[in-house]
Amino acid sequence: MRAYPYRMETYDGAPEPSTEPDAEQPDAAQPAAEEPAAEEPSKLLPVAELHLHIEGTLEPELIFALAERNGIQLPYADLDELRARYEFTDLQSFLDLYYANMAVLQTEQDFADMTRAYLVRAAVAGVRHAEIMVDPQAHVSRGVPLETCVNGVASVLANSLEEFGISTLLIAAFLRDLSEESALEVLEQLLAMNAPIAGIGLDSAEVGNPPAKFERLFARAKEAGLRRIAHAGEEGPPSYIIDALELLDVERIDHGIRCMEDPELVEHLVEERVPLTVCPLSNVRLRTVDTLADHPLPAMLAAGLNVSVNSDDPAYFGGYVDDNFVQLETVLGLSEFDRVRLASNSIRSSFADEDRKAELLAELGHS
Ligand code: ES4
Ligand code: ZN
Known about the structure:
Number of domains: 1
Distance between the termini: 41 Å
Bound molecules: 6-chloro-9H-purine, zinc ion
Oligomer: single chain
Low-confidence stretches: 1-11, 19-29
Number of helices: 17
CATH class: Alpha Beta
CATH superfamily: Metal-dependent hydrolases
Number of strands: 8
Radius of gyration: 19 Å
Strand order of the largest sheet: 1-2-3-4-5-6-7-8
Largest sheet: 8 strands, parallel
Helix content: 40-55%
Mean pLDDT: 92
């Protein structure tokens, strides 16, 4: 376990990768000069992370450090007490803790520190392009100005390529358990302040909050020239995936694993090459699948679906993108061929410009 407390002021720590315990720097892909590992770890592939909630990267240590800096009393005595809460029974049980922990995010610096910690860790994981969701309503609703949240995250993303070798885009995600009016209001504010967002997403409690509830929001986003994605088919039925595509005109589906219950839908998704941003460790921790061994990813690949592997809320679900790949390889025997396909899918399905995609595909050996 890491030492606590961190030195604070500006937090620049990041959780250590479980697979490379000595790696501290973003360029840790370099093989260690001495003491080669007994078993050669699989090559770190360049990937695009397409499904990542920045608030879901708040590690327990950073939660405590920010609480101390902001004079916030947490309802947990120590790290172990907080970690004991990371046993989820479903999506809502996770969301309750995820929103509660956001209370420590108060200043622009807090949002910047959280973002920087993610990029440090993502670089170690092989992430070379990241499309990062932020939940503005979760902050505005507790009195944090929209500018504080957006500017804090965006200030770090602005230099991510130079500092970490990761190109980034910001996506404003809207909470589907709130009203469409609330979402429209925040979207108009984001547009008015010229927020550096590439697109919008739709997240939070899925069941009972179908895509049809947000038709006007997505139409407005499209009119404003924004890219569009939505969570669908995580806990919700396959019909939510169909509706997200038809009613919201989304370009990617976040999760989408329940498409496997509808062969006709699978056929359509394969034909249209609709990207599905799958998050295996998330699905296990939220009990969407029983174990990783039961995960539909191999069947999705075999069906020819355009799937990628992503970390969702890595601080809560037991790992970053590299951890997801390592466990898929260990538990499901995912082949090198499939790992390269998943990496290639992630790059091709991103909203990066064509030059950046070509650059990353060339690195992957897929130009
Ligand atoms: C989320 Cl895993 C998941 N599903 C839906 N909404 C979310 N927000 C953050 N993580
Ligand atoms: Zn998600």
